[in-house]
Specification:
Layout lengths: L1 H4 L3 H12 L4 E3 H8 L3 H13 L3 E6 L2 E6 L6 H12 L5 H7 L2 E8 L10 E9 L3 H15 L2 E5 L9 E5 L3
Parallel strand pairs: 5-6
Antiparallel strand pairs: 1-3, 2-3, 4-5, 4-7
InterPro entries: NT_sf, WH-like_DNA-bd_sf, WH_DNA-bd_sf
Protein name: ArsR family transcriptional regulator
Length: about 170
């Protein structure tokens, strides 16, 4: 759906990263490593999204930190679109509430590469996770979003992922 509208895979990944949660931040080199993309490709898209007002940037030590501009008039519609694209619009808050001590939720697989897919692959990392609940929730969510939801609790070795949630330190 979105990949037909937004043809740049890097831009789509950036929109997912920053609009799935307004708290997500990133800097050029870190995002390039996270996406397994060149810094030039990421820089170009960050500049385009910043110039359009979708992202804000701030100096943090020697790095420029990017974050979604929550004051942009299209922030809420774009965030809803990203949530709908991922099929997680109904699930995120409920999961974090009952899942245990979640440190990080990471999107892997095709969606992390900016591609449409029949499955949503999610890695949940943390302490004292309620894995039975999370696996049951994934099973119940699959028919609702018409996509197979796969949850794992170990970060795969494959490159390319998008951090959907990270506990503030």
């Amino acid at each position: 759906m979105l990949d037909a509208l937004i043809t740049s895979k890097t831009r789509l990944k950036l929109l997912i990263k920053f609009f799935v949660s307004a708290k997500n931040t990133g800097y050029l080199r870190g995002i390039a490593e996270e996406f397994d993309e060149s810094t030039n490709a990421v820089r170009k898209e960050l500049n385009l999204l910043t110039d359009a007002g979708f992202l804000e940037k701030a100096q943090a030590q020697r790095k420029i930190l990017y974050q979604a501009n929550t004051q942009h008039p299209l922030f809420n519609p774009l965030q809803r679109l990203v949530h709908s694209f991922l099929g997680i619009d109904q699930v995120i808050d409920q999961v974090l509430e009952r899942a245990g001590d979640v440190d990080r939720v990471v999107l892997t697989g095709a969606y992390a590469k900016g591609q449409e897919s029949d499955s949503v692959d999610i890695v949940i990392l943390g302490d004292n996770l309620n894995s039975a609940y999370l696996l049951q929730l994934a099973e119940k969510t699959s028919p609702l979003i018409k996509k197979k939801v796969t949850v794992s609790f170990v970060m795969p070795q494959q490159a390319g992922h998008i951090i959907l949630y990270q506990k503030a330190s």
